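RECORD TYPE: inverse folding
INPUT: C-alpha cells
STRUCTURE:
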C-alpha cells in the first residue's frame, strides 16, 4: 500500500493533474512518485514466473470547489492512465456558489474516485488525478478548480 497526499488548497487548471506529496511511499518498488508531482508510476512486477500482470486498486478522495473568480457550474475530476481519463472514475459535483477568498471550508464538496488498474508484466503505467471539468457549453472554457485535502491510495490487489 502507498498513500500520497496534498492538504493545502491548490488551483488545478483544466486537463492538469492534482499535485501530491509522499506520505506513505511504497517500499517494494511497485509504485514510483516524485514529491510535488501529480504522476505516479505503477510497475508490472509479478511475484511468480507464471504471472501475466499486476493489479492495483487506486482510490482518490479530496475536496473540490469553484474558485472565487470562477463561475458556478459542474466540476469534475477523474483518474487517468497515461494521460487519458478513465471515464468510469469521473466524480462530478455542482456547487451552489463559489468558494470564499481566501478559501475556507464553505462550498467545498468531497469527491471519491476508484479504479482497478491492470499493468501487464514488465510494463509501467502512469496514473494521475485530473481536472476533467467542461465548460457549460462547447464554446465556454473549462473551469479551474480548487482541490484541498487530496489523498490518493494505491493498493496492490493481485
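DESIGNED SEQUENCE:
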Amino acid at each position: 500500500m502507498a498513500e500520497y497526499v496534498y492538504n493545502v488548497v491548490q488551483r488545478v487548471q483544466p486537463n492538469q493533474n492534482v499535485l501530491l506529496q509522499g506520505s506513505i511511499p511504497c517500499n517494494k518498488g511497485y509504485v514510483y512518485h516524485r514529491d510535488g508531482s501529480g504522476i505516479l508510476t505503477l510497475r508490472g512486477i509479478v511475484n511468480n514466473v507464471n504471472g501475466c500482470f499486476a493489479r492495483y486498486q487506486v482510490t482518490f478522495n479530496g475536496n473540490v470547489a469553484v474558485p472565487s473568480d470562477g463561475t458556478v457550474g459542474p466540476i469534475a475530476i477523474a483518474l487517468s492512465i497515461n494521460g487519458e481519463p478513465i471515464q468510469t472514475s469521473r466524480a462530478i459535483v455542482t456547487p451552489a456558489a463559489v468558494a470564499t477568498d481566501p478559501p475556507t471550508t464553505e462550498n467545498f464538496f468531497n469527491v471519491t474516485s476508484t479504479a482497478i488498474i491492470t499493468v501487464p508484466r514488465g510494463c509501467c503505467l502512469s496514473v494521475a488525478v485530473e481536472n476533467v471539468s467542461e465548460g457549460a457549453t462547447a464554446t465556454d472554457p473549462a473551469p479551474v478548480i480548487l482541490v484541498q485535502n487530496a489523498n490518493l491510495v494505491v493498493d496492490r490487489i493481485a
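NOTES: The radius of gyration is 16 Å.
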